[in-house]
Specification:
It contains ten helices and 13 strands. By secondary structure, the protein is an alpha/beta fold. Among the domains are: 122 residues, HUPs (Rossmann fold, 3-Layer(aba) Sandwich), CATH 3.40.50; 126 residues, Isoleucyl-tRNA Synthetase, domain 2, CATH 3.90.740. Helix 4 packs across helix 6.
Length: 355
């Protein structure tokens, strides 16, 4: 490396006598980066560099890019810088390879982030508050809020050098976008790629909605105490006629099922108890006159849970399937859903019933 800091000096080529031109223009020793940034941004705008980087590539070498859209109802943060730089890498690389890369920007206008922001503005705290305010009026406020910080996002996008078409974006609440989603589902259905199934989904009791995979990834489970608990679920006395006689539900003594769970925070939404249809369960009576109660427990765990109570009956799990019980909390969003005992092979017969 040369000890000097200036550009290479012009030199005589020795043959023609013409001086060589320095390969680079002089580089200033004192750089004002904010000014440089503005000069580069102005150059891109004046020469329409992004548009030309797309239009001047061959039409038969298309590499399409649709941005995973941000939600613009809040100011962009430092995490958006990292995300937008990453988003720019592949389209820019493919452009440098000679591909024609149209880059469609988008805005996400759905989801809890939008709704929670509007709830805070309106002073709403529950789903019932939203219903009292009016669903249509609430949705209108949400639509108005989603583009509140678009200008800030566009400025950030330009300054970090993320080339994306934000002049003609897709918007997730537009009818055309929604219809496109339904069209895709129809194609999947026609190709027999859709199926119906059941799965356990984390649920937010405050918002009364399921948590998305992104919300789960925020780490709620790491911050949630995870004790196992044993809970009484009282059998519905009004269903005595449909209950096996061996359970003696009709004689007025409160009868409950002892259920064990490792996820007690799900109990507000409980609508089912699982038993092993092939296992044996004991009906035990505790207390004296006026304080009697009966508990149904997995028979192998009877001594550990209740000591040596009076056992009135032993019944297979299959006879418990279909019994109705009282919910622990007011029905709320689950009103109209009957809590039932269900048969599940996954339940261990050496365990209590699992909620």
């Amino acid at each position: 490396m040369s000890a000097g800091v200036g550009p290479p000096a012009a030199a005589d080529d020795g043959a023609s006598g013409a001086p060589h031109r320095a390969p680079f223009d002089p580089v200033p020793t004192h750089v004002l980066f904010p000014e440089m940034e503005q000069r580069i941004l102005s150059l891109w705008r004046e020469r329409d560099i992004f548009r030309r980087s797309v239009d001047e590539r061959p039409a038969d070498r298309v590499f399409s890019f649709y941005e995973g859209p941000p939600t613009a109802n809040g100011s962009p943060g430092i995490h958006h810088v990292l995300a937008r730089v990453f988003k720019d890498l592949i389209p820019r690389y493919r452009t440098m390879r000679g591909d024609r890369v149209p880059r469609k920007g988008g805005w996400d206008t759905h989801g809890l982030p939008v709704e929670l922001e509007v709830e805070r503005e309106l002073g709403l705290t529950t789903k019932r508050d939203i219903e009292a305010y009016g669903i249509e009026a609430f949705n209108r406020r949400c639509r108005e809020s989603v583009f509140r910080y678009v200008r800030e996002f566009q400025e950030l996008t330009e300054r970090v050098g993320f080339w994306i078409d934000t002049d003609d974006p897709y918007v997730t609440y537009d009818r055309e976008y929604v219809e496109s989603c339904w069209w895709i589902f129809r194609q999947l259905w026609d190709r027999d790629l859709m199926f119906r199934d059941f799965r356990v989904t984390p649920h937010c009791p405050r918002c009364e909605t399921s948590l998305s995979s992104h919300e789960v990834a925020l780490g709620y489970r790491e911050e949630t105490p995870d004790p196992s608990v044993t809970v009484r679920f009282r059998l519905d006395p009004s269903a005595a006629a449909a209950t096996p006689e061996s359970l003696r539900l009709g004689d007025g003594v409160p009868t409950s099922i002892l259920a064990w769970t490792t996820t007690p925070w799900t109990l507000p939404g409980n609508t089912g108890l699982a038993v092993d249809p092939g296992a044996s369960y004991a009906l035990a009576e505790l207390g004296g006159e006026g304080t009697r109660e009966r508990l149904i427990v997995a028979e192998p765990l009877l001594p550990a849970m209740l000591g040596e109570p009076e056992v009135l009956a032993r019944v297979p799990g299959s006879e418990l399937v279909g019994l109705r019980y009282e919910p622990l909390y007011e029905a709320g969003a689950w009103e109209g859903v009957e809590p039932l005992v269900l048969g599940r092979d996954a339940v261990c017969g050496q365990c209590l019933l699992r909620a």
